[in-house]
Automatic annotation (TrEMBL), chain A:
<dbReference type="Pfam" id="PF00400">
    <property type="entry name" value="WD40"/>
</dbReference>
<dbReference type="GO" id="GO:0070545">
    <property type="term" value="C:PeBoW complex"/>
</dbReference>
<keyword id="KW-0539">Nucleus</keyword>
<dbReference type="GO" id="GO:0000463">
    <property type="term" value="P:maturation of LSU-rRNA from tricistronic rRNA transcript (SSU-rRNA, 5.8S rRNA, LSU-rRNA)"/>
</dbReference>
<feature type="repeat" description="WD">
    <location>
        <begin position="422"/>
        <end position="463"/>
    </location>
</feature>
<dbReference type="GO" id="GO:0030687">
    <property type="term" value="C:preribosome, large subunit precursor"/>
</dbReference>
<comment type="similarity">
    <text>Belongs to the WD repeat BOP1/ERB1 family.</text>
</comment>
<feature type="repeat" description="WD">
    <location>
        <begin position="748"/>
        <end position="773"/>
    </location>
</feature>
<comment type="subunit">
    <text>Component of the NOP7 complex, composed of ERB1, NOP7 and YTM1. Within the NOP7 complex ERB1 appears to interact directly with NOP7 and YTM1. The NOP7 complex also associates with the 66S pre-ribosome.</text>
</comment>
Automatic annotation (TrEMBL), chain B:
<keyword id="KW-0690">Ribosome biogenesis</keyword>
<dbReference type="GO" id="GO:0030687">
    <property type="term" value="C:preribosome, large subunit precursor"/>
</dbReference>
<feature type="region of interest" description="Disordered">
    <location>
        <begin position="519"/>
        <end position="626"/>
    </location>
</feature>
<protein>
    <recommendedName>
        <fullName>Pescadillo homolog</fullName>
    </recommendedName>
</protein>
<keyword id="KW-0698">rRNA processing</keyword>
<dbReference type="InterPro" id="IPR036420">
    <property type="entry name" value="BRCT_dom_sf"/>
</dbReference>
<comment type="subunit">
    <text>Component of the NOP7 complex, composed of ERB1, NOP7 and YTM1. Within the NOP7 complex ERB1 appears to interact directly with NOP7 and YTM1. The NOP7 complex also associates with the 66S pre-ribosome.</text>
</comment>
<feature type="compositionally biased region" description="Acidic residues">
    <location>
        <begin position="519"/>
        <end position="573"/>
    </location>
</feature>
<feature type="region of interest" description="Disordered">
    <location>
        <begin position="330"/>
        <end position="360"/>
    </location>
</feature>
Amino acid sequence: MAPTLPERKRKTRELEPESDDEFANVVFDGVLSQSEDEFDDLSDEEDKDDDESGNEGSQSNDEEDDALLSDDIPSDVDGEEEIRKLLKNVEIEIDEPGVDPKREEEEDPDKNYTVETDANGNERYVYEEIDPIYDSDDSDAQGPVNTIGDIPLSFYDTYPHIGYDINGKKIMRPAAGDALQNLLDSIEIPKGWTGLTDINTGNPLNLTQEELELVRRVQMGLSTDDLHDPYPEMVEYFTSKEEKMPLSAAPEPKRRFLPSKHEAKQVMKLVRAIREGRILPYKPPRSARGRSRRRRRFTLTSGKTRRPKSPIRCTFLRPNSPPWLRHELQPACRIFAEEREAWEALDPEEREKDYMPQKYGALRKVPAWDTLVNERFERCMDLYLAPRVRKNRLNIDPNSLLPKLPSPSELKPFPTVAQTIFRGHDGRVRSVAIDPTGLTVASGGDDGTVRVWELLTGRQIWSVKLSSDEAVNAVRWRPSKDSFILAAATGEDIFLMVPTHASVTPTLDQASRDILSVGFGYATNGQKQAAPTGKEPPAKWARPGTKLEDDGVLIRITVRSTVKVISWHRRGDHFTTVSPSGQRSSVAIHTLSKHLTQIPFRKLSGLAQTAAFHPSRPLFFVATQQTIRCYDLQKLELIKAIQPGAKWISSFDIHPGGDNLIAGSYDKRLLWHDLDLSNRPYKTMRFHGEAIRTVRFHKGGLPLFADASDDGTLQIFHGKVPSDQLENPTIVPVKILKGHKVVSKLGVLDMDWHPKEPWCVSAGADGTIRLWM
Amino acid sequence: MAKIKKRGATGAARNYITRTQAVKKLQISLPDFRKLCIWKGIYPREPRNKRKVTKSVTASTTFYYTKDIQYLLHEPLLQKFREQKVLEKKISKALGRGDNSDAARWERNAARPEATGKPRYTLNHVIRERYPTFIDAVRDLDDCLSMLFLFANLPSTSAVPARMIARCERLCLEFQHYLIVSNSLRKSFLSIKGIYYQANIQGEDVLWLVPYKFNQRIVGDVDFRIMGTFVEFYMTLLSFVNYRLFTSIGIKYPPKFDQLKDEQGAELGAFSLEGVNIATDGDEIKAITNGESQHGPDPKVQAAVDKIVEELKADSSVDKASTEVVAVADEEEGEQASDSLDKFEPAAPGGDVLPQPTQASGNVSQLFSKFTVYLSRETPRQPLEFLLRAFGCKRIGWDSVLGEGSFTTDESDPSITHQIVDRPVVQAVNGTEDNGEDNQTSQKITQNQRYPGRIYVQPQWVWDSVNDVELKSPELYAPGAGLPPHLSPFVKTANGQYDPTLPLDAQETEAEALDAEIESDAENANAEEQEQSDEDVENDMNVDSANGDESEVDAEEFAGVSDDDVEEDEEEAAILQRQREVEAELSGKSLKSKSVDAKSKSKLDQKKALEKKAREEAEDLERAKGMLSKKKRKLFEQMQFSNKKKSTEDTVLRAKRRKLEKEQRKARATLA
């Protein structure tokens, strides 16, 4: 209790600016004079007061105070007023130290006044203020009222107060507040705000909670009090339920089923009246003029409204579509008699036009058109019966469909004619390759020989017979200019040789031989290690024998099955061979410097067809019949599988840039893949009538590629890969090179590009090699 | 597991409905269904796969969208049809009972639906539904107008009641009145089927066909009930359209109709238009009064004409007058041209081409406005009157035979500036002496009598002037003259297509021109040789055969033969040439046609070069085509096909014209 009282004091202090000066002084004095003890006393007394006045709450003082502040008194001002009263009591009690209040009260509990001595020393009765407690009869007792009587409030305009309360004290004018305050008030409208001012107090007149509730009820159309129930429970006069024991069990009377005689009389009355003409059954018909005037017309809406969206409705075809209205009456060209005959000979339905232009000398000679009514009728029938189909007419220039190809002059240079024909092979030439310097051509054929030719002259400069019974399937030069090494595959053997040739300087020759022989020491070491494993080594590296060694063939590698493809790594230290028939060991990678052969794939899904190294990165491509797989050689993992969609890939080649790949297939397709773009081909070209054997890019910087086919032709394409990644490569077919003869359904078996020039050589089944330039 | 789908519950089977099913669903008879379909604009649809719709489908099964039929279910007309059916049943039952008075009463009541409080059906709501905007209705006006104009010209039969025809005629005339007042007629064309008119109504081109005024022959099986249904709909449509058009230009609709005048054949003249505004009602009667209300012709024009007539009298030469009138007209056109848009020609290449309107519409209303036209007895009055009025002519007179409503029936009226005649010129025997007499008074004129001071033209002059929006030179259209070609104004020749108005040189391709020249050269040579002598029979024959070969090549080229054949022909020609030289040597003569050959050789070379170029282009095209996808290639080939067809058509036309011109030239040469 004790600690709460100072709070109240603080409150009063806060209220000070609003209250009367005198009053404030008093209060302050009193408060200042009090001590802690007195506080206790005071509170005790107050407790007793409360009990006596029958206040139901035997609760703590504070609570009561709070109740006073909050419950009974609606507004702040009233609260102040109340506090003032309360404080007055306090003051009085304190001011009267001589009197023992307890005793007095015990004497006369009903006495509600105190006796004071006034200034003259006489007794003075000071009455307590009437407290309109809850159960008091005094229902009229309200808050303090302005007791100025019937005087206009404007009289007080010049004073700081607006009237007097019942005790004759001035009621001060409530602070008007500054503009800012008004603004804030207007923003935060309190509940029940009316915007009016109470005349008597000068305070804003707000609606109370009850009044608001009343307004709400009126607005909602409810009754003004809760007591009225708008939906009382229905009391049925006749029950909807069928009673078991009805009041009357009489059957339906017959009259309910008979026509009413009364009604019949009424109708007859009307009928009689109509017959006699006394009343008219219908409105009399209006005159003809009136009718026509009454024809209701309304304007069709002007183009503003949107037509309803209805996908199923097509517009009607327009009749008389003008294209066939062509110079009819006076044809500029005389119609020749044959034409007319031809037109007349046709069946009427097959005629393109249903009329024949005819010349009449003058308008008066023009006859009627016989079939006009029929034509109109046909049109009507069409409108009524013809099913309609929406046809979207493509109104575009057909040439816009064509891709923009660079002109042939821009595409130059590319090979066009057969410059040299190399003859000498007996039987088919299986493989052909131009050496890295571009001076010589190596070839291998069915006769088991490898021949080296001078490129421009077509002169054979070197030849070796590797096998008497098996064909040379592949010849490939080691791709570096510091050596002159040729790899050739015949049957299961791969031979590495250094052709002797006039242009090969002894130093170059020696360098080549060194490169080949350096591995021999290594190989012995390697074999020592490999032998204990007990497995058969994947390949045997050996010297081919003195006879061949004299010819320049220095190494013979024997693998397990027939080798069909040789492909060098760009540095020339490794090469891969593919033998499609060898199951597990179909793909082998050979290391020249170590004389080592490795089988990278223990298991390969599908038959390997060909393999190649990536031109710049450590990637390895293997083509099986339907897919081309790309492996990372460092991480030893599959990077991507390309699916050209061909049934049987014959060969592929990788663009020198490394991002594009072409594949040829035995099912006549040439497929261009953009490796970054997709696994599916970017372009599929089907220009060949027969299987494609070889595809090859030009490696010397020219945007060319070519394919060789069994139909005896080579097709040269311009395939430019733009440096910008976003652009698509342009592929333009430029030339078909014809010349090779087709022998037993085989045409061109292999081809190779010159390392620098736009020349290519091709090996044909007809036993010739051709240089195209 | 997913729910098993029931057959026929979704898809095509659900979306389509056969006609029999539809009729059953709507519970009406087939003719009623037909009517409903015609009016509501519902037509059959072709399902993509008929089998998917129903199993028992035949070739002639008609399908409708189920949604369409559902939409018909709510149609108020359906109720009317049913009521009608009920009434018919009632009457037949009553007749069966022998209750004739009842039947008669029901029938009588049905005949006067307004009076019984049960109004007959109207198609107003259908029009509103089908044409949500006015412009939609205008777009659909082509069929409507062609149909109504045809019916307006039909004889009345039991199938086509006279009332319907009268109403059609009236609606058509009202529509024509709108076109006249608003000057929205643009083009017209005399074809063998009838007269085509094209009007521009609120930016929309409307084209319709009006038959010539002959009794229409009805051959074959024409179901007039179907036509009648259409006509009923179109009549409602046109009345709405007319109403809106009339109110849009501030004229009261329906216009005042004079029954008496109409019976006398006044046609357009039977209507008098009133302004819709009450304030202007009194003075602004826009009736086609044919100038009668103005008490004679426009004073200005009259003065001009009088002046000319005076001059004529002094000069007494018809030709000069006509040219002067034309000159006056030309001057006025020149003034108008200053208001019209200027033509923007690009100063430098590379800019975008902006479309420009080709002609100012101001010309349209004033083309004939200065003239007083008189129509001779033999001319078709209705189309001429309509056309002249639509292009600004205010005073049109005609012979009283042609009907009421003319400006003057007096052929000798001095205010007449133009007379349209369509009769053959009979060589007058004594016509020259009449010229000296006073024209104003003489009523009896001989057959070939011409009034001085007016221009005589054939009717085609009006059409050609209208289509080109400029007055054509009347000399070309003088009576008896061979008329210039009347070409369809609706055909827009695209670039490269045959255009009959242009000379041949301007449009033929290089190859064609060369061919033609070579041919003509050869013929000339031929002719020369024939002239020279026929001593050297062998030689002549050779030349002939060479010419023959060449013409064969020409023929083949039209058919588009591959180059191999051409090469072969070239070889043949070379061989022939060599042979000819050898023969000349043998006979000891110099080659006669050497000089000719030199000329023709250069042309042949040119031709060869052209062919080579064409071949190269074809190769390029082939290459480019190779790069297309299959789908695109097919599309491309299709387009090429249709283009080729068109171009061969054009080539044939040009060849025809070349032949014709050559013949004409020859004829002229022989005459000379």
